[in-house]
Amino acid sequence: MKQVLLDLQSGSIRVEDVPVPAVTRGVVVENAYSLISAGTESSLINLAGESLIGKARARPDDVKKVLQKIGTDGPLPAYRQAMSRLAKPEPLGYSSAGTVVKTGTDDFEVGDRVACAGAGYAVHAEYVAVPKNLCVRIPDGVGLREAAFTTVGSIAMHGVRNAHVTVGENVAVIGLGLIGLLAVQVLKAAGCRAIGIDIDREKLALAADLGADAVSNYDGLAERMKVFSPFGADAVVITAATPSSAPIEAAGRLVRDKGRVVVVGNVGMNVPRDIFYEKEAEVVVSRSYGPGRYDRNYEERGVDYPIYVRWTERRNMEAFLELVRQKRIDLDRLITHTFPLDSAPEAYDLISAGRERYIGILLQYSPNGAGASGTVTRLSGPVARKVPAGARTIGCIGAGVHAQSALYPNLPGLPVNLAGVATATGLSAQSVAKKYGFAYCTTDYRAILDDPGIDAVLIATRNDLHAPMAIDALAAGKDVFVEKPLATDTEGLRGVVRAYSESENRLMVGFNRRYSPLARKMKEFFEKRSTPMVLHYRVNAGQIPPGHWVHDDEQGGGMLISECCHFFDLMQYLTGARPVQVYARAIEATGTLRKYDNFQATLAFADGSVGTVTYTTLGDRSYSKETVEVFCDNAVGRITDFRDLELRRDGKVARERRWLAQEKGFIEELRAFVKGEEADFAGSVATTLATFRAWESIDTGRSQKIDIGTVGL
């Protein structure tokens, strides 16, 4: 299928072939129309067109993160990760309408006409995959062209709802672009009187034609407002888009005592305190198109809110379409341009050049003849690579930040054939395939498993998919490299053990730190030890946002299971002994602090060694992230951030420093996998089980035994 994409490095707009997205908890829709949001999309395009310095100035918080990464990881990894993010094309669009062609929910059937919402979902593409709560049926009497406005109409409607207006109230709308003109019509449908305010005479005239009771530019606005409403506006809805604070200042002058100002558009927010104080006026920033926005449970999982949360995203969408059905909203007057999908770059040129007036710009789609089955796209002319005869052929599943910054950049340098890559979205799959030289890309991971030419699979998806995909890959007769954690619960771990026992193939877990050259040197340093080890692994992780998927109980498993498995595994590697018992304590969860993100876990190993992991999100990110200390036989070893190694014995010190980058073992683990080295599967199971038992120890306050026999080994 074809999709519009934005090149974040150059700012160019292209239409490219990508695989049809997979259906998950919603529907796959064949788009008929999608609406270009000139304001939202133009801001992203303008940022993409900036130089690296311009991008940095616009995103100072991101620059801070890069500088912190340079301090801990070194300049090369920080640069690679930053450029990897910029190299990934960005999908555009968030409001479309079409027909359901695949469904993964009982809410919709194939053939339903639906309006779709959501950035990353209702994009400018021939087919889109949309969660069920961001999708609504289109009522009879409403065309697909009109329904493509539903998301933007819901933004206007939510802004009006936030004004808490009632029948007969006087409301000012500042900014008569697309959302402002829709807001005027929603207000009229709600029984309010509306005055539209803008600097553009043609927009003022259009607002009057669409039902505004009065219109005005800023010249003489005070006098016109007195005629419209002598005591001021009951509410002011700001739908302008400008860095200037002039709209919020004007709103303060227009609103009545104890009135309400609702900010919908992206405007300057230097609120004049004196004006708002004297009137005791309220300022509300309207968030998108209703409750549910940015809530992963609602948007991704389809968990609806109770009816007393009356106007959710989906219910606002339904209400807007009902107003269109009743002819209370006139959209024909707002559609100024319609472009075929292939001409999308021309549509954006029209916006950026400003040569013509525009309001509503639609992209129109024609049936492509391939249908929704085109989940595999073969790349024309993949990058030629010299690969030895008999080299392994690898297929990859998943393409997140870690995969693209730590794993995939190493693949072109290995003696392997790169067959296919599978991701959930077509644009991501196509981007990764082109960048690293895969022969094809797909949104169906089973296409990788069913490919007879592939003998090894690399799995780098979200955590909850690791175990089931590893099980499927082993059943398909593939060798498996799966990122950590191996599983997120005991049942998943048992399933992997069972599949491995029934298979003749290898399975390696991405515990890369044991492959680090610095870790190998530390192990060699203590190779002839005569006493057990005492180990301490301190991790200054820094806080991860509460809404990040790694904290999700279903998808991520939390930091203890998702990340601390690395540290347990490295201690197991250094001791050469299995963990047999763990005791863990965590600080109490308060505010944004999660229970399993700040803890100490002490492990006992079969050889008598003991190791403690101190994991915290409470520290300063500018301080070193990881420090491993080993004490044994009157000797000490220390690794700091996998850039510094210090080994001490008998008063003699040996030090090594990596200036440009960390040596975390990513390339070394991949080389080992490609060579066919036998991995420590039982050790990987023990490490994974140790994280589960540490979790239980925190919950129960008691130490827990670690017995891999309980999961089938």
Explain what you see:
- This protein is an alpha/beta fold.
- The chain has four domains: 2-149 and 295-364, Quinone Oxidoreductase, Chain A, domain 1, CATH 3.90.180; 155-285, 3-Layer(aba) Sandwich (Rossmann fold); 384-512, 3-Layer(aba) Sandwich (Rossmann fold), CATH 3.40.50.720; 513-711, 2-Layer Sandwich (Dihydrodipicolinate Reductase, domain 2).
- A nine-stranded mixed sheet has the order 31-30-29-28-24-27-26-25-32, covered by helices on one side. Strands 3, 5, 6, 7, 8, 15 and 16 form a seven-stranded mixed sheet that branches. A seven-stranded mixed sheet has the order 17-20-19-18-21-22-23, sandwiched between helices.
- β1 and β2 form a beta hairpin.
- α6 crosses α7 (178-189).
- It is elongated, with a radius of gyration of 29 Å.
- The two termini are 46 Å apart.
- 47% of the residues are buried.
Name the features.
713 residues, alpha/beta, Quinone Oxidoreductase, Chain A, domain 1, Rossmann fold, nine-stranded mixed beta sheet, seven-stranded mixed beta sheet, elongated
Number of helices: 24
What's the name of the CATH homologous superfamily of the largest domain? Answer: Medium-chain alcohol dehydrogenases, catalytic domain
Named CATH architecture of the largest domain: Alpha-Beta Complex
Q: What's the gyration radius in Å? A: 29 Å
Mean pLDDT score = 91
Strand runs, count = 32
CATH class of the largest domain: Alpha Beta
> What name does the CATH topology of the largest domain carry?
Quinone Oxidoreductase, Chain A, domain 1
Helix content: 25-40%
Strand order of the largest sheet: 31-30-29-28-24-27-26-25-32
Label the overall shape.
Answer: elongated
Mind describing the biggest β-sheet? Answer: 9 strands, mixed
Strand content: 15-25%
Uncertain segments are none
Structural class: alpha/beta
Q: How many domains comprise the coordinates?
A: 4
The span between the termini is 46 Å
